[in-house]
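Hi P.,

Sorry for the delay on this. The queue was packed all week, but I finally got your sequence through. Input first:
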Amino acid sequence: MKHLKKTIAVLAGLTLLFSACKKDDPVVSPPEPVPGSIELQTYFNQNISDEIEAFTIDASANESITSSNGTQISFYSNSFKHSNGALVTGNVTIELLEVFDKSGMIRMNAPTLGNVPWGMFQPNMPLISGGEFRVKAFQNGEELELNDGFGYNVNSIVPGGGMADPNMEVFYGRNSDTLTWDVADSSWVDGNGPNYYTYFDALNWCNIDQFMNTAGPMTTVNVQLPSGFTNLNSALFISIDGVNSVVPVWGFENGVYTIGPYYQLPIGMNVHFIAMAVIGGAPHVAIIPATIQDNHLEIISDLPVTTDTQLIIDLSNLP
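Then the structure:
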């Protein structure tokens, strides 16, 4: 009995000791979730994949396809060749991606920043888009090329239900770290009411565009995101109010995004900043209205979690 009492006393003492230690131990919070670079790129790629439409045509015949948006694309017979230069015969799969609005430009990481041929001091300028297209051709898994001297005709709607702008030109995408656009050496765009009639002589990214008129005093723009959000795991865009234009912000130094030295924006321009990341599979997005000031610094303190459905609604409401 004496041994039993002693054992009970020891156990009670240990219980008190551990209880005291637990009370004194600091509470360790779980680490804050951080955005992932792979998650963000996967998000962009999935949005692109969801919007691609596929069609089958006969490479030896004049063929046309019509997208769900009503875009008509007409291909000439014998337009395609293999990478070794051999003429393609038989069935060809055409993959078409269309981007007509700001929501698509942002969610598919297809902004409208043009490479300026004469831009010694400002190598890029915002573009106003009349519709972006990514057209690819495949046969048995091989990506095909256009034969020399061949192209295809596109009949597309004017974005937003507007009327055709006679100043539009053809641009082709240059896709390295981010998508930018080169004006074509020669282009044919015929605007007729609510439609554009265009001739493209290259596959992959094509665009109906014009350089934005940025007359007046210009300035650089810097943006600071919360700690942990960098150009490796986040994306930053500037939507320009009143026109179909979204430009990327990819310069990053000392924790601050910048558009310099790539391009500048006019002082007084009304814009919306869109900062986005993906954490745990969910988009985190901030949409901030602003008017560009001289040496503009925009501080974005939070990227709230959202859903794909709500994000599409919010981006579709950009002015």
